[in-house]
Amino acid sequence: MISKEEILHVAELANLKLKDDQVDSFVSQLGKIVSMEDKLSSVDTTNIEPTYNMGDTSTTFREDKGIHTQTREQMFENVPESEDNLIKVPTIVEKGEDE
Amino acid sequence: MNYLNETIDSLHKKLVDKKITSKELTEQTLSGIKEKDEDISAFITVNDAAVDTANTIDESGIKGSLSGIPIAFKDNIVSNGIKTTAASKILYNFMPVYSATVLEKLENAGVINIGKTNMDEFAMGSSTETSFFGNTHNPWNLDSVPGGSSGGSAAAVASGEVVAALGTDTGGSIRQPAAFNGIFGIKPTYGRVSRWGIIAFSSSLDQVGVMSKRVEDSATVLSAMAGHDYHDSTSSEKEVPDYRADLNKDMTGVKIAIPKEFWHEGADPEVIKQVNNAIDTYKKLGATVDEVSLPTLKHAVEVYYILASSEASSNLQRYDGVRYGFRAKDVKNIKDLFVNSRSEGFGDEVKRRIMLGTFALSAGAYDAYFKKAAQVRTIFIQEMGKVLENYDLIMGPSTTSAAFKIGAKIDDPLAMYMNDILTIPANLAGLPAASVPAGLANGMPVGLQIMAKPFNEQAIFNAAYALQEENKFYEKIPTALKGED
Question: Which residues are the active-site ones (chain B) (predicted)?
Answer without folding.
Answer: 74 (charge relay system), 149 (charge relay system), 173 (acyl-ester intermediate)
